[in-house]
Structures are given as C-alpha cells and as structure tokens.
What does this fold into?
Amino acid sequence: MVSEPDLSVKIGSLVLKNPVMPASGTFGPEMAAFIDFNRLGAIVPKSITKAARPGNKIPRVCEVEGGMINSIGIQSKGVEAYIRHTLPVYTDFDVPLIASISGESVGEFAELAERLSKDSRVAALELNISCPNLRNNGRGRAHRG
Ligand SMILES: Cc1cc2nc3c(=O)[nH]c(=O)nc-3n(C[C@H](O)[C@H](O)[C@H](O)COP(=O)(O)O)c2cc1C
It folds into this structure.
C-alpha cells in the first residue's frame, strides 16, 4: 500500500495539513461548487478593513492578453459584518481560517488584529500591507479617479 506523502507545514504554532491556500479576494463560499474546502491547507477570505468601504469605481476588472488585471481597491463590509456574516460561513469546515486584514494606518492594523485574534474562529492573521491599486500601496485612501 502506498502511503500519502506528508504535506503538512508549520507556521509558528499553526499546523496546516498542506500549504495550499487561496489568494485573498479570489475565493468565497461559491467556490464550494468546484472544490472540497476540507482539502485546503487554510481558508483565506477577502481582506477585511475596520470600516466598510466601497472599493474603487468600476470598471475595475479588465481582460488582457495574458489574463486579467484588476483594481478592486479593497471593497469591504467592515470587520463587524465579517465577524457576523463571513466567519460563520466557514465554521463547518475542518480547515483553519486565516483572516487577511487591511488598514490605513498602523493603529488600524493593530485594532483589527486585536479584534480578530480574540475570535476562536480565526487561526491566524495575514496582513495585506501592499495593495498596488491603492494610493501609497494601501497606506492611504483608494484612488477614486
Ligand atoms: C478580484 C480580486 C480581488 C482581490 N482582492 C484581494 C484582497 O482583498 N486582498 C489581497 O491581499 N489580495 C487581493 N487580491 C490579490 C490576490 O490575492 C492575488 O495576490 C492576485 O490575484 C495575484 O495572484 P497570483 O500571484 O496567483 O497571480 C485580489 C485579486 C483579485 C483578482
């Protein structure tokens, strides 16, 4: 009998059964129609900000010869909606959830980290510290033009 290879990885105190995790923003519950979430190493929902924000104006996705480019601008329902509506969607899966957080200042990152690290449904935090389609790489407000 051939045994399965051990693909587990350790990040700090967090152990993932494999290193496969979706890129934040490209993944949501609708993907369950295509993949078994329990096979992922971790689930990473779209980045969340402290307050709700609309993101950039449309058009913000464009098909190009090599694929597509996007400039969503971190559309977000805000952290309270994330806790109320996003986290419960994933609790039935046997996969750690990594919360991607995005702030406009160090203080906002700290507030988000404090709020979410208290929630047992969040196994780890990912800091979205460089969003190229936001002014100042995400350390300021989104472009509106
Ligand atoms: C529609 C869309 C929304 C995205 N939203 C986020 C986001 O909220 N946070 C983030 O860190 N990255 C976001 N990204 C970037 C992706 O996580 C990823 O880095 C990007 O698609 C490049 O992936 P690749 O290196 O596999 O091509 C988004 C990408 C797309 C296409």
Notes: The first helix runs from residue 79 to 86. The helical segments are 79-86, 106-117.
